[in-house]
Amino acid sequence: MVDLGVATLTLEMVAESQxxxxxxxxxxxxxxxxxxxxxxxxxxxxxxxGATAENKDIFGLALLLTVIPETIVIFGLVVSLLILF
Amino acid sequence: MLQPKTMTRLLIVGSKEQMPSAVxxxxxxxxxxxxxxxxxxxEGYEGFRIGQPMEGATELSTDLxxxxxxxxxxxxxxxxxxxxxxxxxxxxxxxxxxxxxAIEQEVSNLTAQRSAAEARIKVNEQRIAELTPFSGIPxxxxxxxxxxxxxxxxxxxxxxxxxxxxxxxxxxxxxxxNTTVIFFKKADRATVEHALAEAQFQPIPIPEEEGSVRxxxxxxxxxxxxxxxxxxxxxxxxxDIKGKHGNFLAACDEVLSADVEQAEAPLRFAxxxxxxxxxxxxxxxxxxxxxxxxxxATGDKILVMEVEETGGHHDSHDHSKNQPPVExxxxxxxxxxxxxxxxxxxxxxxxxxxTLMVAIIFPLFFGIILGDIGYGAVLLxxxxxxxxxxxxxxxxxxxxxxxxxxxxxxxxGFVYAEIFGAHPGALNIELWHPLISxxxxxxxxxxxxxDIAVLLVFAVWLGIIQMTLGRFMGVYNHARHRNMLHVxxxxxxxxxxxxxxxxxxxxxxxxxxxxxxxxxxxxxGLNIAGIIGGILVLAGAIGIGxxxxxxxxxxxxxxxxxxxxxxxxxxxxxxxxxxxxxxxIAIEMLIEPQFKELTAVGIVLIIxxxxxxxxxxxxxxxxxxLGGGLQSLRLQYVEFFTKFYKGGGEKYNPFxxxxxxxxx
Lengths: 85, 664
What we know:
The complex is a heterodimer. By secondary structure, chain A is mostly helical. Chain A has helices at residues 11-54, 59-67, 70-84. The two termini of chain A are 43 Å apart.
């Protein structure tokens, strides 16, 4: 009788699934932080464009405020690089 | 360098008789930044008043408006004539009086003719639109009216309409929206209208014309084509005039703009009945020549006073009034970066001008991010090409920034050994061994692994250096204002950051950073470096707290800002990955397999592969430009400038204008 409930794991399979989970984690790190940065920049960006339309001089400040949350996704990218390599 | 040009405040006082010659002289020198006089406007105030424009200002403005309107008709910009020979402004003035009215008359006649023709075309198009529905009905237009007992209704209906009373119906089918014309007895009107209303009938007006519909439409159409030809003719004439007089008009514009500006200059002066006072700033180096010029022009009948107020030593809270205007003073290679700093904000007169720093660091960062000989070369060619094609000061400056940045990208391309992401990967190419490898394991030939950790730490190091530099610049700015509390605050930040670094080094070994874990532990598992670090962190935090307790919330920014610099490595790596994937798909998946056995399908696949290769790399170049440019700019703006830079200085805008097309 073959017991279908138990499958044997070889060492390669363990290594491969570890690799897979790492890749998943890296993907989640970039993807979720990307969503976070996007949501954060959404409000700031639209307000910044509006403010720049009113007064062109504050373009620099507007750009600065818009890119502040972008660091979040860079952190995600760095974390995923560290996971993968 | 690092400082704006030093300015001297000059008061020019004279009798009103001297004003015109003084204004002309100021305009010619093009160095005097006038501070506009503002009237107090209080009741009963009996002091200086804002001056009145000089005589003839109104006529000059009228002429200028005429010229500008002709220019806008021609779509002419004075920049188009930059390379032409300069004319004498005296001769221009004579020609203005002689020729301008004639030219204006001719141009306004032509434009009037053109707009009349355009209006006529509109009317005809409208008529045609009204006639078209009737073109399918076999009736002459005269037959639609003039009956005593018969009525006619025309309109659009989606389907055929059932009418119970005697009538005659004509239908021209037109895709479910048929034109229907119904003739019926006048007495039956109510019944017919009822039936029509139920059938979603939309009445249309019957054109008041005679003869066949087709003929009428043809007549109108031929008239339209005649009018279009006439308009083309007029446009040609206008272009002719533009070619003949364009240069002259651009020169007129320049001369008259200068005259108008001079005539209106008194509006910025303080005047009494007989005298005027101009208040303004001049770069120190220009003071002497301006003074002697003014003395000469007015026969020494004018008083020029240097006011002992060079700025720079004000209290930092009172900078709104009487701050000198700011003009950059940078070596040639840093000049293009001024426009980038201007986007953020012009430096204040009493703070360090970061342009030189940014001029070095921005291309460096751009190179670190893009770092590819191929992409760098493409951008360099692009920058040089656009420099020839595009005109305009601001664009040229930005293109020079791009040029410097792409040269830096090429240099880093050599360091990383990358051309269009072509490392050993999809192709078995090994250019040379990279100093720092960004190569990834994509493609079958790939054997390098990138030095990812090294790259990340290297980026953090750059961040630590730049932020420390920024803090030191902040210390200098505050020290100049004798603002010791803020000096201490800035020093505390430096102490906090380096203390935190020491602590980290004493706990963990990090590549590229000093490894202090070997030192013997002294107290609580901390070694000597750790203890010094801890003390620095504590002292720093206390100092920051004393400067402003709110700043304590910002403490983690030391970590987040340092880590933010890792984008230098991370963004660059993502662009490498895209390049390698493009190479892999195009070369290894599409092109290479076809060479084993060349078939018709194979050739198509090769073409697709080349297409993918081109599009992919084009896209990646654009992304690299955007990513490299914006990310490294952001590091300057957010991580660097916030440490010391306030900005908000007034732009140095000297009275006068560079003559491009005319001369005296």
